[in-house]
Design a protein that fits this description.
The protein is built from 22 helices and 2 strands. The protein has about 475 residues and is mainly alpha-helical. Helix 18 crosses helix 20 and helix 19 packs across helix 20. The longest helix has 16 residues.
Length: about 475
Amino acid sequence: MDLWRNGSASDSRSEGCVFDSRQVHFFFLHFSTKTHRFAHLHIPIFISHTLFVTLNPPSPSFPLQNPNHFLPPPPMASHLRHTLRRYSTILSPNSSTPLTSKEKTRSALRLLKSETNPSTILEICRAASLTPESHIDRLALSRAASKLTAAKHFDALRQFIDELLQTRSDLRNERFVSHAIVLYGQANMINQALTTFKFMREDLNIVPTVKSLNALILASLIAKNHKEVTRIYLEFPKIYSIQPNVDTYNLVIKSFAESGSTSSVFSILDEMDRNSVRPNATTINNSIGGFYSEKKFEEVGKLLNLMEERYKLYPGLSTYNVRIQSLCKLKRSSEAKALFQGMITRGRKPNSVSYTHLINGFCREGDLEEAKRLFADMKKRGFRVDGDCYFTMVYFLCEGGEFESALEIAKECIGKGWVPNFTTMKKLVNGLVGVSKVDDAKEIIKEIKEKFAENSEQWSEIEEGLPKE
């Protein structure tokens, strides 16, 4: 899902859920004000998507007219051809045919999945000529940023972002700055996010709007800096003359929900009324999720009644799913199922998310029979079962010692091109051996090795250790 399509993040499996921290798309800039931080260095600078030139080569300390003392750089055309060959090779080392834009990005995504060297990560991004206008490009850039952040290669990330801003005039806009701000939140660099917001106004002469305000609040939310969320919400609209919109309020409510401060939710709703901002499904869902996490069950009913009476806003499927998930997290899966059944009675059809929440809940409470019934019913009614749901079933069935049932589901999962993690599958194999199903254990190992080569050596060692016939 594209995080930025409507200015707020949401769970792709259920509309109205405002924030899914697993998916944060794209990143932006750390740029020194007034002077370019790399201006004094002899370094390659990214320009015009794929071409590199040398910025400010060091001046010789002796007269240029003495050819013995100074060797000039190679001709520009030769330099560019060399650079193009080098950066195209990294994406398609075995191909002589130029790649299309999408092919470059797909290749970059594939390479970034396993690459850890910060310099190579940056070279991959440069070679792919990524642009923030393309969703798949944003995914690639987000992956690169995540890899650099996870490895704490902040300087490498800043270097690349500096290059983009310095050489790409098409990126000097609020949309790109907003992406950058959120990325800094993902990297837990809130001070840098704030600097970027101010830089946009002071150095790029871009007047901030509610879009970049929301990006700044979202960055703080991602970084779990709830105090900063509150400060920005209270101060920045006044300082920058920005009128908050429904997304602003929804993010603040989400922060209250995550920080155990849901007592402030109704005051936010009152402010929305004063500013003529109508709440939406996300407002309800974020509030309800917080109330459930604090076990304020009466507040859930109070909020739902308020939404119906004041705004004629009735709970949709996404709201039911939030309630089902929240009850399951509290190990009240039976209540969640009753709500699920009541929803169907009222004419509201469930979706795969509804089933998945219930299956997770019953699995975690150890009621594997109910989980299996729901799993079977889900497939019978034609709902799509995603990989995570399969993985959950296999894992908990193994935990419960139901290895034959786990094997059946694992085979179905592998047939769809997914495989549970190595630890889960090893537990399944050992469990099958323990119940004298050695042939089944060997068969599943063979299938995994054929379809998923990543851990083939480990599986070969395990296979060698299996009982011989």
